[in-house]
Amino acid sequence: MRQHSGIGVLDKAMGVLHAVAEQPCNLTQLCQRTGLPRATAHRLAVGLEVHRLLVRDADGTWQTGPALAELAATAVDPLVEAAASVLPRLREITGESVQLYRRDGLQRLCIASMEPPTGLRDTVPVGTRLPMTAGSGAKVLLAWADTGTQKAVLPDAAFGERTLVEVRRRGWAQSAAERETGVASVAAPVRNSAGDVVASISVSGPIDRMGRRPGARWAADLLAAAEALHKRL
User: Fold this and answer.
1) List of domains in the chain
2) pLDDT at 112
C-alpha cells in the first residue's frame, strides 16, 4: 500500500497522480481507481493539470504531464546511484542480466538494469512495471511487504505464503519459467541504513544457462551485491 504523510489533501493528490501514471484515464475511471468523490477527484486532477503534472486530451483523458519529466531530470536517487557502482560487477561475475526493483503499490518498478554485451538475455528496461504475482524479485519484495499488500497480491500469485516464509528464512528467492517462459531468476533484498527492505536485486537469464535452481549458483554473489548496496546506502 502507498505511504501516507498525514496531510490529507497531499495524499489524495498523490493518489490521483499515481492512478493516472499507472494508466491514462478519464474522470469516471479516476474515481473508480482512487475511491474519491467525483468533485474531489476532478478538483485535484485540474489542480495537477495547472501545474503541468497532468495533461488532458480532447476526450477528457488525463495522462502524466511534462513537469514530471522536468522534475525527474533533477532528482537524485541514492539507490540508483549505488546501483551504478554495484550492478556492473554483478553482471561481470554472472554474465547475465541484472536488475534492481522497487515496489510501487501492487507492482514492482525496474529502477536500474544492465545486460550482458552478447548472447541471449532477459531484457527488462528501466521504467518497466511488472506484477508482484510472479518472479523472484516479486517474491522478495512481497516477503517483506506489509500484511495488506500481501493479502492483496497472494490470491493471484504463482506462489503462496509458505514460499514467502522460506524467502525470509534463507534471505533470497528464485524462480524458473514463472514470470516468463524460458526465463529463470534469483533475487535478494536490499536494505537501507535502518534495515528496512527497500528494493530487490536480481539476476535473470535463460533457463538453459541459469538452470531451474539458479539460487544454488548465484545466491552467494547476489547476497554480496545486496550487502554492497546496503553499505552504500
Assistant:
1) 8-72 (1.10.10.10), 78-232 (3.30.450.40)
2) 94
